[in-house]
Amino acid sequence: MVRQIAPLFFTMDIPATLAYYKEKLGFECLGTWQDPPVYAIVGRDQQVIHFRCAEPPTANPNKYRDELLDAYLFVEDADALYAEYAPRGVEFTRGVANMPWHSREFVVKDCDGRLLVFGANL
Asked: 112 near 53, Cβ under 8 Å?
């Protein structure tokens, strides 16, 4: 039985990525490996994201225009999380709104250019 799936993202600067996820998105660093770190895990609300120090793959040039998402994070209250992130200077590429697929969601562009959608069921 699959109990959880954790995304694994590549980053060239683990300390900067950890700082962003802590300060902007409210995640906690659960651990790093080696010094300087080559691998790290962050968590929030019993969910985790893994990071590995590596050259990211070349992005699709239409990534932002076509909103090619990197991860969908299911949340309880999209409005409350949006209100938490807004004063922290998080870069939103789509504001909070009801979607035709019966969710309320918004999209964040993280420090490494990934698109993260945070969505709650309506």
From this structure: no
Question: What is the radius of gyration, based on Cα positions, of the chain?
Answer: 15
CA distance 19 to 67: 25
Question: What is residue 59's predicted lDDT score, i.e. its pLDDT?
Answer: 77
- Expressed as residue numbers, the domain containing 48 is 1-55
Sequence-ordered list of residues with C-beta below 8 angstroms from that of 83, at least 6 positions apart, any chain: none
pLDDT digits (tens, 9 = 90+) for 24-62: 999 999 999 999 999 999 999 999 999 999 988 887 899
Please check whether residues 70 and 111 belong to one and the same domain. yes
Tell me whether strands 103-109 and 91-99 are parallel, antiparallel or unpaired.
antiparallel
The pair of three-digit structure tokens given for residue 43, joined into one six-digit string: 């968590």
